Amino acid sequence: MHRSNFRLTTQPLRRLESDGIILGSPPPSQAASTTISTAAKKSPSSKNKDEHLPASIIVSANGFSATHFLHPLTVYGRSGISLHDHWRGHGGPQAYMGTAVHGFPNFFMLTGPNTANGHSSLITSSENTAGYIGRIIKPVLSGEATSVEVKLDAERKLTREVQSEIQGTVFQNGGCRSWYQDAGGINSTMYP
């Protein structure tokens, strides 16, 4: 966190671009104390304009809402559909290994659908997932490929297996409603 290319900010994320991110103006209470990276492109006409920050890897830690993955971000896939609309069309959040979604190349989540567990460390799980993502994205980072994407059949097959297995667990069984389930009773939070 002490490197010159690291920056912690509360500025709102406006959008992702192929070469970086666009941040909105900082909240008024922080505008005077916010330091702008020397690598940032900012309009000279106003201090309250959006800001472009170059980035090749983006890590977003945006809060906790168990059944609303990536909230409040909107991620768009190859076909221009948002991830949340994609999930609505497939019966709820799902991802291959809780990480990759068909139609969203080069997009990965550390704690995506059905990755939480009630018996082990989320830190260990996240570290394992980061290693998994690193292996998958390696051909793109080395220039051997331009994108990687999970096959739809693989994503759906694994989702069916996970949803089937979770039916017999305390996370879904017994008629109890919990924060693990969305409004429709789908449990896309816990790993069986």
What's this entry about, in short?
This protein has 192 residues and is of the alpha+beta class. Helix content is 24%, strand content 8%.
Describe the protein's architecture and organization.
The model is unreliable at 31-46 (pLDDT under 50). The radius of gyration is 19 Å and the shape is globular. The protein is an alpha+beta fold and 192 residues long. The chain has helices spanning 28-31, 83-89, 122-141, 152-166, and strands at residues 13-17, 20-23, 41-42, 51-54. Strands 1-2-4-3 form a four-stranded antiparallel sheet, with no helix packed on it. It is 24% helix and 8% strand. The longest helix is centred in the C-terminal third of the chain and has 20 residues, at 122-141.
Oligomeric status: single chain
What is the number of helices?
A: 4
Q: Percentage of helical residues?
A: 10-25%
| Low confidence ranges | 31-46
Strand content: 5-15%
Category by helix and strand content: alpha+beta
What's the pLDDT, averaged over the residues? 82
Overall shape: globular
By DSSP, the count of extended strands is 4
Strand order, sheet with most strands: 1-2-4-3
Radius of gyration equals 19 Å
From the N-terminal CA to the C-terminal CA, the straight-line distance is 35 Å
Main sheet properties? 4 strands, antiparallel
Q: H/E order of the elements?
A: EEHEEHHH
